[in-house]
Amino acid sequence: MPKRDALHMSAQRERILRRTIACISRKGVEGMSLADIRKECELSTGAIYTHFSNKEEIVAEALRYGLVSGSSFQKTGCHSNG
Predict the structure, then answer these.
(1) By the 8 A CB rule, do 18 and 72 touch?
(2) Residue 29 DSSP class
(3) pLDDT per position as a tens digit, 9-38
(4) Which residues have C-beta within 8 Å of that of residue 62, sequence separation ≥ 6?
């Protein structure tokens, strides 16, 4: 498998985080699986594990990413009204 450049890897990681937020908004953290994330991202399990160790790490990073970018949660309906 050819090596990917840093820009590609960064974009792929961000895509995984954004798609994970979409999964969380539909299924909740407990209701989604790594297979759901994989399908949403259209990536292999190995490609996801290149960036993250497990589901918990993906979720934690996705939530952190959503809080930093803010707009990701607003677009997926995950912001609170309170």
Answers:
(1) yes
(2) T
(3) 999 999 999 999 999 999 999 999 999 999
(4) 16, 17, 18, 20, 21, 24
Q: Residue 59 has which token pair?
A: 């979720």
Q: How far is CA 28 from CA 2, 31, 39, 80, in A?
A: 35, 5, 16, 14
Domains in the chain, CATH or no CATH each: 6-75 (1.10.10.60)
φ, ψ (nearest 5 deg) of residue 7: -65, -45
Please, are residues 44 and 2 in contact by the beta-carbon 8 Å criterion? Answer: no
Q: Which of 34, 63, 60, 64 is nearest to 49 (CA)?
A: 34
pTM of the model: 0.78
Give start and end residues of each alpha helix (H) in 1-82.
6-27, 34-41, 45-51, 55-69, 71-76
